[in-house]
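Batch 3, record 17
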Amino acid sequence: MNADEKIDVSGLSVAFRRGDGYVPVVHDINFSIRAGETLALVGESGSGKSVTSLAVMKLLAQAPKTRIEGSAVVADSNGNAIDLVAMSEQQMRHVRGNRVAMIFQEPLTSLNPVHRIGDQIAEAIRFHDHLSKAQARARALALLEQVGIPEPAQRMECFPHELSGGMRQRVMIAIALAMEPDVLIADEPTTALDVTVQAQILDLLRNLQKKNGMAILFITHNFGVVAEIADRVMVMYAGRIVEQGSVAQVLSSPRMPYTRGLLAAVPRFEHAGLGQGDLGTIAGFVPDPAAPPAGCAFHPRCAFSIAGRCDSLAPALEEVEQGHQLRCVRWQELPDNLAVVQGGAR
Amino acid sequence: MATAATYLPSSRRLVWFSNPTLARFMRHKLAVLGVVMITLLVLACVFGPWLLPYNDLSIDVRNRFAPPLTGNHYLGTDALGRDTAARLLNAGRISLLVGFFAMLISTVIGTLIGVVAGYYRGWIGAALMRFVDAFLSFPSVFLVLVLAAFIKPSPMMITLIIAVTSWMEISRIVEAEIRSLRERDFTLAARMVGASNRWIMFRELVPNAIGPIIVAATLTIANAILLEAYISFLGYGIQPPLPSWGNMLNAAQQYLGKAPWLAIIPGLAITLAVTSFNFIGDGLRDALDGRSDLK
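Prediction for the assembled complex:
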């Protein structure tokens, strides 16, 4: 792990026990995130995004029910490298919320309905720092101010249901940032919010990141959000990374047909009311991890698949240009023009 | 301005019930009646014995079997000429205290076992719930009688015996509640910030299950009072001369033809207390369930 890297995940695989055997759901994921960098993890529901993040946090069911391989290295509070995958539950408790924090999609249900906001933040601090209640509450107040909650002193006494969705997500962010973690995992943190609030939350995350230099793993299926916040993108399909690169590389010149399909499925303002540029859809569903298709996992849904090649050879991750990698045996033969793809992929 | 003024009186009246849970409880007439009855009963049992002219143990053989409203014996006297009113209220102290503390102990036991079983599930949960099932498979009256036959009966022992045989229902309710609560996002969020299992169980989950626990506890008081009456009636419970509603009934059964009030009065007291607690339990169940507003 370079000194600059806040988290380094390598060879991460996850399998769930089903019946007698194990069903692999995440295969050999590698990534690292530098200080102040945001990596977006994109994919359909069921592609393994959330499992990847929960595996890093060790929040999946324990050993016999799941099998986690590989490593996820972060620095502990003394700067020593520690591998989260190898840690015990007891040790993990000191890492979670302290070195690595996470925010969730549903800010409504992520806060305990029976406790006041201020107490929830203060207790989260007291899990890691031996502070008095009053000191922890003072820190909580400062955090609420930092995440842009108006009248923070009054809000401290509120119950979660008294706040709007955007406010609740700010509270979740305050809790996540309480211990100034090196790494923040944001699992679709803006999906449940209005667009205007979404923009505010993204702004907030960006500003906080600028201040404390944390690394963010941002899980989303919204390419608008990716363009807004991420430095690099990783597209996941059926538990594998199928394309990764900088935001510019992946969003403006996607190569892998799956990425192209996802991008074609994004509604565009330019086409509004013109009756043209129908939304692209990708036919079919994410494959069952217990019975993956032979060859490229995406080939049954791919408009460009060729019998004999795509269904026999599992493509390896190939570098197409500096920092831009993908899995597709045909990438060199495919047209560059996205518009052609839109028509074809439908 | 005029409209605001016209709306004011009604909205002011609503302030009383601005807490929706309280408002729902107040709508349940029988539950309100139950609260009133229990309050009166408790006040009477606490202060009554000091106000009455007779002691519950003073024997007056010349005045045996005096019917109610004879002189200062408002509820008559029993076979030894003891004042029934004084005995009833002193018995009420014991019966209500036994019921209350039995509820408290069984709620603590039931909640502990339910929370641990519901939170850990797996073999711990299965073992604990089979233990609960084993306890439930004994008819509790017989279990209580067997225990009472071996242990020297004192109010404290009776309380413990009743508590030990009536915590299972609460365990099952709490276990089911915790099982569903632990799947909620805030449980994951609590683990996410580094909370320990004990913290999650008792600080995050139990406060969310407090509604069903309170309802079950209220119904448990009713059962505990009834159970104490059973075993005292059968002679294994509170021992005379200490009065309890159950052993007053026991003493009355020989004279059922001659002095029926001796049975009717403690019988009424038991019925009143038990039904009141049951009504309160029903009212709380509706009040703590927000969905009952939609009906």
